[in-house]
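Task: sequence design from structure.
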């Protein structure tokens, strides 16, 4: 018996086959994977990581409130979350070439349109388009494309892609700041739009040739997913993971987009702020590499317990030592390392702490509140800032939320360990 692992809509699922799986379908091999990693660097860098560096100059020129500007970002992230499943399903059926190419063109057009914006309503419309573009081009879609094209080796290829793409913030946040200083925020966006188009479109349109329909092997009847979901909703481990991932995503997203304004408020020089932010990417990559090398010795429960303490520690450093450059750099390292490993924890938590059958359905339910929190937390942080007149209250709120995330994971891991072994086996039968 052969077990095929497959990603659909950004989620990992298993299919039991009665014969050998299909051979690799996509030509290009490792050069293609590295090219897609470069496209991810450009996609994340131009659209996602540029935002925090544009908040202050947009405020200064346009006079809009910080909460109004961050609301557009939250709207776009929410649209991206709502479109993610549809984008993954399309790629799983038809391949990623045309959808990812269209997403690249849309992203570049929206970045160019953003450079000409003069009304807040227009900014919201632009970020709705950027949300669709992100769903078509970022990690979830490229993971599905790689899994579809390299069914035998997608795990290794995805790991390598995330190791390379982890440098997006390290490359593009300093680059964006240089462009803002030299060209203004409007000129910076025009150049970012050109970079996105010049780098990503040739890779997606010309190099990624995965449009041919892949013959799928005959699988046995599927698991009763509704019964599995009902069982999951009765399982306290599920609720521990749901609370953990939702709180973690809220903390990480809010801090990502408010870190530069926070440091500016504290009078930290832009060079020091960018240097601190530049540490995040290498920290993500180094942490993922360690997990990749020692995965067999580090169970998910233990890894998650340790990693989820890193984010509250980084926030505590920012609160306790507001004027210390070394504390800022150390906080950036903890912050990047936590996110690097949490990418892996999210994919492994359900099968390792609960069960493997119905993974994609259970993970999809877990992902919805986490994506909503990721989308809304930058706006919530901006509202707290505007109500209190500073970022201290924001940091204390995020410290509380991140500590709650760690406690929720510790509880889930403890409950999973105490769960009777027979429960994992007593799953709904296949139809």
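Answer:
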């Amino acid at each position: 018996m052969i077990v095929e692992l497959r990603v659909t809509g950004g989620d990992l699922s298993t299919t039991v086959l009665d014969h050998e799986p299909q051979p690799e379908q996509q030509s290009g091999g490792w050069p293609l994977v590295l090219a897609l990693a470069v496209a991810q660097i450009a996609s994340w860098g131009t659209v996602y990581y540029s935002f925090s560096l544009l908040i202050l100059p947009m405020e200064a020129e346009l006079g809009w409130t910080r909460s109004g500007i961050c609301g557009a970002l939250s709207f776009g992230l929410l649209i991206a979350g709502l479109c993610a499943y549809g984008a993954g399903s399309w790629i799983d059926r038809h391949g990623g070439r045309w959808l990812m190419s269209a997403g690249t063109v849309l992203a570049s057009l929206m970045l160019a349109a953003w450079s000409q914006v003069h009304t807040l309503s227009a900014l919201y419309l632009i970020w709705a388009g950027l949300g669709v573009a992100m769903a078509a081009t970022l990690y979830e879609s490229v993971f599905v494309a790689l899994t579809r094209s390299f069914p035998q080796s997608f795990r290794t290829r995805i790991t390598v892609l995330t190791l390379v793409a982890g440098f997006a913030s390290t490359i593009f946040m300093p680059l964006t700041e240089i462009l803002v200083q030299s060209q203004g925020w409007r000129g910076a966006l025009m150049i970012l739009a050109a970079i996105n188009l010049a780098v990503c479109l040739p890779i997606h349109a010309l190099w990624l040739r995965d449009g041919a329909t892949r013959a799928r092997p005959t699988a046995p009847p599927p698991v009763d997913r509704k019964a599995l979901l009902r069982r999951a909703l009765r399982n306290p481990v599920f609720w521990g993971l749901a609370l953990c991932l939702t709180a973690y995503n809220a903390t990480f997203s809010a801090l990502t987009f408010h870190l530069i304004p926070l440091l500016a408020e504290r009078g930290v020089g832009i060079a020091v702020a960018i240097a601190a932010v530049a540490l995040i990417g290498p920290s993500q990559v180094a942490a993922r590499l360690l997990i990749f090398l020692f995965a067999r010795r580090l169970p998910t429960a233990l890894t998650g317990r340790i990693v989820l303490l890193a984010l509250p520690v980084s926030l505590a450093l920012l609160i306790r030592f507001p004027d210390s450059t070394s504390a800022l750099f150390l906080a950036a390292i903890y912050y990047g390392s936590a996110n690097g490993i949490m990418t892996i924890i999210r994919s492994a938590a359900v099968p390792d702490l609960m069960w493997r059958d119905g993974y994609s359905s259970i993970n999809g339910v877990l992902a919805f509140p986490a994506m909503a929190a990721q989308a809304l937390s930058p706006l919530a942080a901006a509202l707290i800032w505007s109500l209190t007149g500073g970022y201290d209250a924001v940091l204390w709120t995020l410290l509380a939320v991140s500590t709650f995330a760690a406690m929720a994971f510790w509880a889930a891991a403890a409950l999973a360990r105490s769960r009777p072994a027979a429960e994992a086996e007593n799953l709904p039968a296949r139809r």
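The chain has 18 helices and two strands.
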